[in-house]
Amino acid sequence: MKRTFSLLPALAGALVLAGPAHAAETATSNLAVSAIVADTCTIATGTALSFATLDTSSISSEITPGLVTVICTASRSGILVTVDGGDNAASGVRRMATSDGETFLPYSIMSDSGHASEISVGGELYNDGVTAAVPQIIPVYGQIPAGNYAAGNYSDTLEVTLSY
């Protein structure tokens, strides 16, 4: 007579006797992460108004573009950007001056590409809202009226103010 043995019960018994397998011990904890973002706005003048060399024989005015950028950490309405008269303004007219301060070149600041909206001394360049963390790029245009001007290197500095 032939006897057949099954290994299955023997293996099951061996596993029970071997006991549970042990992994390395672990422990967990939480690490807190936090930050505070200040509720603020900043202003930067990106592209300067540079007229380069003027052609005084031209019968048209000279125009150059520039940029002002405002960025806030929270969405806001009522953002106001104003532009003063510069260092050499006289009687409400912005003027560039030579380094000796003796010779002047008048210019205007415009808020539109069609050069129809002049910004008066202390006037508004921008008065609207901004979206949080999205740069608001504000174009600005400089314009020098056609005319005959004395040779020289002219410059001025405008103060651009952000109110929010």
Textual characterization of the structure:
- It comes from Aquimixticola soesokkakensis.
- Pfam families: SCPU (PF05229).
- Residues 1-23 form the signal peptide.
- The chain is mainly β and 164 residues long.
- It has one domain: Sandwich (Immunoglobulin-like).
- Helices cover 7% and strands 35% of the residues.
- It has one helix spanning 8-18; strands at residues 41-47, 62-72, 76-83, 94-97, 104-110, 123-130, 136-144, 160-163.
- The protein has a five-stranded antiparallel β-sheet with strand order 1-2-7-5-4, with no helix packed on it. The protein has a three-stranded antiparallel β-sheet with strand order 6-3-8, with no helix packed on it.
- The chain is elongated.
- The mean pLDDT is 89.
What's a concise summary of this model?
This protein is mainly β and 164 residues long. 7% of the residues lie in helices and 35% in strands. The chain is built from 1 helix and 8 strands, in the order H-E-E-E-E-E-E-E-E.
Set out the fold topology.
Layout: H1 8-18, E1 41-47, E2 62-72, E3 76-83, E4 94-97, E5 104-110, E6 123-130, E7 136-144, E8 160-163
Antiparallel strand pairs: 1-2, 2-7, 3-6, 3-8, 4-5, 5-7
Protein name: Spore Coat Protein U domain protein
Signal peptide: 1-23
Keywords: Capsid protein, Signal, Virion
